[in-house]
């Protein structure tokens, strides 16, 4: 049994993250804890050189040693966490004392994952991250369903997520045992798609996904990928193939290849060359594999980008 358990461990994976963002998260949870919201720790796992974040006081800073990917880094943080509950939070989430305290007050049941409402800086609800999909068709269908659910209208206004939706990996809370049982995220996903996969595995195991509409967390989005567009695009498209392969098998790979080809025809002209190169690269890797999924890591993605230049 882990000694000296506290109420909540907040695990943040940092990569090209502004130091001010991390300081803001640490300070929000420090203030919430000082206000008797409970006990908490913030664990920062650095996927780039950790000395970049040495000025962030009040957190446990872990040097991953290399860019291990988001999912693998969350497990690195979990292995050092002391919380009865564990929150996995993107560094581009913005907390104040109130939202930090509300997150600390969440008490998910075993095999339950909870997320707060996510909003952008203008306060608009961000519904896209709640969609789970394989092709563009079910993506658009589920996007409409996500809007209705997140906004709490019609017949799907409860807190439990209906089929076809997932919780956004930007901010999720679960108990310690659930996190350890499910991973929580599968490191086979380097970047993106790991939340879809986690929610799918939890549903199959009889677990529960719940949205807590009682408070909001600002999610800015996209900061870690600034200046690494091609690298991020490859990771996104690989994640689409990986989830489709796990969900539908070989037919899912063919479906995603066709879907990505069609999407390249309707993208803005300036985005077409980059998207087409990325789509061809990922499709070639997946279509030539018959029985197993190709592995992906930072070195594989960086080498692919270099061959384009």
Largest beta sheet: strand ordering:
3-2-1-4-7-6-8-5
- Element order, helices and strands? EHEEHEEHEHEHHEHHHH
Number of strands: 8
Number of domains: 2
In whole angstroms, the N-to-C terminal distance is 52 Å
* Contiguous runs where pLDDT drops below 50 for at least 5 residues: none
Overall pLDDT: 90
Class by helix and strand content? Answer: alpha/beta
CATH C-level of the largest domain: Alpha Beta
- Morphology: globular
- Looking at CATH, the homologous superfamily of the largest domain is Spore Coat Polysaccharide Biosynthesis Protein SpsA, Chain A
* Number of helices in the DSSP assignment: 10
Q: In percent, how helical is the residue content?
A: 40-55%
Q: What share of residues are in beta strands?
A: 15-25%
CATH architecture of the largest domain, please?
Alpha-Beta Complex
CATH fold field value of the largest domain: Spore Coat Polysaccharide Biosynthesis Protein SpsA, Chain A
Radius of gyration: 19 Å
Major β-sheet annotation: 8 strands, mixed
